[in-house]
Structures are given as structure tokens and as C-alpha cells.
Amino acid sequence: MKELREGVVSETRKKMSETIGELYKQIIEGVLCSNSELDDATIEDLLRDIPEHAKRLCFDGLMILRGEIGKNKNILNEHEGEEKEFIINEYIQHSELEKKGVNITDINDEIKNCTYTELAGGIPLIGLTHSIWTALRRAGTGSPDGWTTSISNNGVSFIFYPLLAQMKESDLAPWLKEHYIKQGLLSKKHELHHFIWGMLERGGFARESNESSSELREAFLNIRHELIAHIFSESGIENAIFAHNPNDSHVIDQINSIIGIFSSIGNTILIDKMADQGTCLELFFYPIMKSRNFNELRDNLIQTAKTYNIRI
Ligand SMILES: [Zn+2]
After folding, report:
1. What gap in Å lies between CA 267 and CA 305, rounded to an integer?
2. Residue 151 CA to ligand 1 centre (angstroms)
């Protein structure tokens, strides 16, 4: 009887992992990346294959996401026609760039040469000119590959990236140049995930961390963000995580342990050609999503790997 019940639990868990991972992928690739709105018909479509007991959770998440993107859209509507000026100036203020030595007048003169587009109505993409991008890099803001997502609790949230055509050879390490040319789309997906997950955190849908210290909480929330980004954009994981520079050796050990397990899972899937049979990293989205601390994350990764016979 116990075995039977465990079998049912394990099947239920598998179904959750499979369908919820697929749902998140569809939101990034099928809906937002291709510029569709999260309207009622799209949401109904997305929920069609979700098992009954998980529908409520997914529906709530989608409604929160739609609501948060809608709030961003409302802010943008108030600044119609001057969105890029508004967004860049908000960013200058909230990142205190003036205090960090950035010349604000130079930036304001350059904004007209930046580009502004929107994904799916409410997700702004700002293409930064060479001089603005380098000024921000020098001030220490933005990720190493230049694509950065900024989530604001009260103001506007957006994604920015350097306009490649304006980059000088010397601005980019060779691997970064390669990365841009081959993987522009992957960077977009990576940041789109950060935007979506950031909205789900802001809207109170993503589980809060219950780690014991603020440094561990921050590191945990960061690694959860980056692991999911890695799943859906195949971007390098170590660089992204260590870009945040933790100092505490205990925090670094925790991060290394998770990276070790996760890399090993990815390698096994690759080496054993498990991906050909449908076993992929997306299955790990749900177990990662529900984790609230490093121990839970480690246990959930190991448990899921066992369920799918993935060697660690
Ligand atoms: Zn990232």
C-alpha cells in the first residue's frame, strides 16, 4: 500500500515537473519572446495540458504576471513618446549613478541615439549606445555580458543591452563578441526570464527565501534566478552567479555545491544523450522554483535527478 502511494506521489511529482517546466518555456519562447499578449485566450491555451491539481497555482502565477506587466505598461503609457528618456533617467536616479561619477549631461545628450522597443506590451528593451553602455559598465552596473534587467518595486522595470553595431573591438572580450553574434537570442531569453521571475517575485508569487541570514537569502534568491535562466537560455552558469561577488566563504561553498550538482546533472543528460529521449533541464524548473533555501534546493535537485535516473 505504501509503495503504491509512493508510486502515485512520484508520478504526480513527475507530471508537475514536466508540465510546469514546459509552461514556463512557452511563456518565454512562445508568448513573450514572440510578442504576444497574455490575454484570456492565451492563458487558457497555456493551461490546457496542466494537470487539474496544478491548474490553480499556474493560473494564479499567470494572473500575477499579467497584472505586474500591466502595471509597467501603465507607467510607460504615462510617458508615451519619451519612454527611453524616462527609463534611463529613472535608472540614473535609482542606481545613484551621479554619486558613482557618471556624467549625467553626457548621458542625456546621447539618449536620442538609444533605441526603445517593447516586448509583449509592457516589457521595455532599451538599446544603449556605446558611450552610455561603457559609462554604466565603469560605474559597475549591469551584468558582464551587457544585458541587464532592472526590476523596480515602485517605478518602471526594463531590460537594457548594448547596441552591437556601436561596440568597438576593444570593448568586448573575444568570447563576448562571439556570444553576441551567435547568442543574441539567448541573451534575450535569459533576460526575459529575469524580467518575468522578477515580476513574480514582486507580485508575491515566487516563494520567499527562509535562509538564516540576509547574505544567504540574497545568494539563494540570486542562484535560483540564475539556475532557471540557465535552463531556459543555455547561458553559462558560473559567470552569472559569481558576477554578484559573494564574500562569505560559507556562501561561496553553498553556491559551489549547487553548481556542482547542477552541472553534473546537465553533463549526464548530455553525455547519456538523455535529451534525445525527452529528459531535459526543464524538468528541474519546478523543483527549483519551490525551493526556499540552499538545503531544499540541493534535496530537490537530487530527488528529481533520482526520479529520472540521472546520475550525479
Ligand atoms: Zn542572469
Report:
1. 12
2. 13
